[in-house]
Amino acid sequence: MTREQIEAVLDDVRSWPKQDQEELAGLARDIQARRSGVYITSDEEREAVARAQTSPLIPEDEVDRFWKARGIG
Asked: Which range of residues forms the domain containing residue 36?
């Protein structure tokens, strides 16, 4: 794509409903993660992790061990 084509697409995207814009942003994050090897979580994913970390279904120490084993906690 040329720079002009990219700008035209971005101009169109600005008029899309928020849900469609968020879907496109998620796809762009997935592509960037594949290209760079670094995945950037969305706000929704960070909220889900926060809820999971405080879930009463699993003891807190077990949750802490889980996240630490993955380099997150």
From this structure: 3-69
